[in-house]
Amino acid sequence: MALKKYFKKNVLEAGTDEAGRGCLAGPVVAAAVILSEDFEHPLLNDSKQLTEKQRELLRPFIEEHALAYGVAFVSEEKIDEINILQASILGMHESIKKLKTQPEHIIVDGNKFKPLGDIPYKTVVKGDAKYMSIAAASVLAKTYRDDFMQKIDEELPNYFWKKNKGYPTKQHRDAIREFGVTKYHRKTFKLLPEQLKLEL
Questions:
Q1: Spatial CA neighbour of 101 closest among 142, 129, 68
Q2: pLDDT of 200 above 70
Q3: What is the pLDDT of residues 127-174, one digit of tens each?
Q4: Bridge partners, 116 (sequence order)
Q5: pLDDT band at 193 (very low <50, low <70, confident <90, very high)
Q6: What is the CATH topology of the domain spanning 13-179?
Q7: How many Å is the maximal CA-CA distance in the chain?
Q8: How far is 141 from 94, CA to CA, in rounded Å?
Q9: How far apart are CA 126 and CA 119, in angstroms?
Q10: Does the annotation flag 109 for ligand binding?
Q11: Burial of 195 from C-beta contacts in 10 A (0-12 / 13-18 / 19+)
C-alpha cells in the first residue's frame, strides 16, 4: 500500500513518531517532519519495515529534502519520573517545537497525544505505515536513537546495546542478571521477568 502524502491537504502538516518505548535502557527519541508536496523516495516506509542500511540511506535524504524536521531525546530519568507514555508525548511535543516552521496540523503515530498549544491534531494507529511524514519521522527517531545506543555500547559493552538497542532480548536480560543495572536503565521498568525487588 502506497503511503499517503497528507491527512489534510493545503496546510503545513507535521508527522510525528517516537522510537524506543519498549526498551529497558536508553532514552525515548521522537521526531517531527514536515514534507513538501513533491517529496518522493522509493524506500520510504515505516522504519520497522526497513533494514538498518535503508534507514541510514533515508535519513540524510529526509533531512535534506524535508521542509523542516526536529528530533528530541527524553532521558531514562525523565521516563522514570513521568512514565513512558508521558515521556513519548513530551518527546513528540519537543520535536515539533524544534521545527523551524510551525505546523498548522499534526498527525501522530499511535492513539495517544496531548494538545500542543492550539495546533489541531489527529492520532493515527499504525500511522507510520500510512502517511509519509510519520514514516519519515519514524526513520529519524529510530536512527538517532540507534546512534545513541551504539555510542553508549562503547562505554558499557557488556549489554550488547549495539545489537539489541536496549530492547528486552534474552542477551540483554542475561547481562542485567550478570552485571546489574546501569545509569542508562529505566528503573521503573520490569527489567527482569523474575524481578520482585532489584538491588539498586
A1: 68
A2: no
A3: 999 999 999 999 999 999 999 999 999 999 999 999 999 999 999 999
A4: 119
A5: confident
A6: Nucleotidyltransferase; domain 5 (3.30.420)
A7: 55
A8: 13
A9: 21
A10: yes
A11: exposed
Distance CA 146, CA 189 (A): 20
Q: State phi, psi for 159 to the nearest 5 degrees.
A: -100, 0
C-alpha cell at 195: 524481578
Q: What is the pLDDT of residue 2?
A: 81
Sheet holding 105-109, edge to edge: 68-74, 28-34, 13-19, 105-109, 121-124
HEC string for the chain = CCCECCCCCCCCEEEEEEECCCCCECCEEEEEEECCCCCCCCCCCCHHHCCHHHHHHHHHHHHHHCCEEEEEEECHHHHHHHCHHHHHHHHHHHHHHCCCCCCCEEEEECCCCCCECCECEEEECCHHHCEHHHHHHHHHHHHHHHHHHHHHHHHCHHHCHHHHCCCCCHHHHHHHHHHCCCCCECCCCCCCCCCCCCCC
**17 marked as part of a ligand binding site:** yes
Q: Does 146 carry a binding-site annotation?
A: no
Short-list 111, 1, 136, 120, CA closest to 55: 136
**Which grid cell is 21?**
518505548
Residue 61 has pLDDT above 60, yes or no: yes
Choice between 161 and 37, residue whose per-residue pLDDT is larger: 161
DSSP-derived pairing of the beta strands 68-74 and 28-34: antiparallel
Q: What is this structure's pTM?
A: 0.94
